Amino acid sequence: MTDQNRHGPVLRRVVTGHDADGKAVALIDGPATNHKFPDDKLSSTMMWSTDASPTSILGDEDEGARILGSAPPASGSRFTMMEFQPGNAFHGLHRTDTVDYVICISGQIDMFFDDTRFVTLRPGDVLIQRGTDHAWVNRGTEPCRLAVVLLDAVPKRKGSISGLVSAR
Prior knowledge:
This protein is an all-beta fold. The protein has one domain (35-152): Sandwich (Jelly Rolls). Helix content is 0%, strand content 42%. It has no helices and eleven strands. Strands 3-4-5-11-6-9 form a six-stranded antiparallel beta sheet, with no helix packed on it. Strands 8-7-10 form a three-stranded antiparallel beta sheet, with no helix packed on it. Strands 1-2 form a two-stranded antiparallel ribbon.
């Protein structure tokens, strides 16, 4: 099945901002549509990204519509919702030079540190990942949904994923 024929998970995305009078408004309220499908058992839906820290709270660009690789923009952030189907394959380890906040929303998943060592995340668990090698494997019986925020970090190391490159 090609990416054009696949549908990502239904995720409502509400983005707030300011109207001409400076009052709070919902600029976007609808389904997130920026889906990537690295393989048949994985989807990644871009929710938002930033180019700097601190970032601007003004403007009307839909920063969730950008096409990015696995890492965020330099000095920026990347927020995605990822969904791993049961039985996804171990594709080898990868890393980004980022601090990642990973929240398990539903299902469960194993985050491998190497070929044999792993930690299992379940709903409500939070992982703070600091530029370590890792791989994700869903050995459960239901899809696992993760909220993932990547913040650009230092140092920059040879072999880390950066720019428009994706982990898969």
